[in-house]
Amino acid sequence: MTFFNANGVVIPCSDELADQVKKDYGIKKAGVTITDEEWEAAGGLARIIGGKIVIGKTETEKKAEANAKRVCEIDRQLDVLDLASVRAVRASLAGTATDSDAEKLKSIEAQTEALRAERKTLKLVCIGK
Questions:
Q1: Torsions phi, psi of 8, nearest 5?
Q2: pTM
């Protein structure tokens, strides 16, 4: 797959068509040439950023995507921890809690605090602050 930068627009061409495009439009060389496998791996994404053809996601986009994925994982872990605390909280409210229930709640709270702190830093990175 061959790409040309035509006044700020990415024009993708098959390798066969690229030679004809160069000839017809007086272009000396393509902006980028990649294999079909590389194109598939890039998710079929081609853009012009800073005057250059960029294939695939930028490092910033990859980082934001990884952060968003981690935020979702943290949210799932927080849900699991909330469910894990229900019995101990119920026992505490009923006045039947044991020392084990209190320790369990302290442990769960420490885990949730750590996850929330991590989530906060990831969210800040995601939105560029």
A1: 85, 5
A2: 0.65
Paired tokens of 62: 């990859």
Q: For the chain, what are the domain ranges?
A: 2-56, 60-126
Residue-wise pLDDT tens digits, 62-103? 888 899 999 999 999 999 999 999 999 999 999 999 999 999
CA distance 121 to 114: 11
In tens, the pLDDT along 55-72 reads 888 888 888 889 999 999
Largest pairwise CA distance in the chain: 85
At 17, which helix (H) or strand (E)? helix 15-25
Query: Where does the pLDDT of residue 30 fall: very low under 50, low under 70, confident under 90, or very high at 90 and above?
Result: low
**Contact partners, residue 93, CB within 8 Å, separation at least 6:** none
E-only strand ranges, the chain:
2-6, 9-13, 32-33, 46-49, 52-55
